[in-house]
Amino acid sequence: MANDAPEKMKRKQYEKELHKLQIELCHLQEWLKESQERVVIIFEGRDAAGKGGTIKALTERVSPRSFRVEALPAPSSREKTQMFMQRYIERMPAGGEIVIYDRSWYNRAGVEYVMGFCTKEQHRRFLEICPVVEKFLIDGGTRLIKLWLEVGQEEQERRFRARIEDPLRQWKLSDMDLASYKRWYDYSKARDMMFEHTDTPDSPWHIVHSDDKKRARLNAISHILSRIPYKKVKHADVELPDRSTKKEYDDHASIAERRRVEVRY
Predict the structure, then answer these.
(1) In a 10 Å sphere around its CB, with 0-12 CB exposed, 13-18 middle and 19+ buried, how is residue 143 labelled?
(2) 25-51: per-residue pLDDT in tens?
(3) pTM, to two decimals
(4) Counting CB atoms within 10 angstroms of each CB, which of 9, 51, 137, 248 has the fewest?
């Protein structure tokens, strides 16, 4: 972070602001059902940039049927023979859905290129074709939002060391993370090439500085809400009906002898 950056946000303030944004996300969800709009959100960035935590904050108060997260594993042997973007397009949203890609087809512009998992020709071809495919999606009525989470060298190192030392975070650390850590500037050059070719007026990238995870999450969610022209959907007031007692019986006694979980807390 720059020396003049604000101090990291306190949890109490963060939770207060996040609550407000999550209410708006619920309004967005209802508007999506009514409008049948389709939205794709792409989260990209270096390892440990905070993509997972931001996606969790974005989705934890809405229905997974409306906000669907796609975090695709390495391609299978069959998928390797398909068109490169085919398996991503198969997971595109239907009407009333938001699909969130935790990494996306931009793997080819980042990890695949840097780690040598694709050829230079495949990388060049991707950068050439990608804006065309995205324009096709947008012209077909899909809203596309692309976010790049940018973490600094010192903060990335701190997060990696925390993963090494904390048993609750060790699962987040992979051999690929360690390999990418050594190639900071290779990833920087790949990022810059990606922006040069795919940051277009139709499908722009927006950078979220993520050294402060809390501010990054709030800024990302606020940006997403600002990019979709949703409105609060009016609903009829709901009242709980009276329970029927017509078939009343002692439903506690009927399970009194069943096995129970040991009460330890």
Answers:
(1) middle
(2) 999 999 999 999 999 999 999 999 999
(3) 0.92
(4) 248
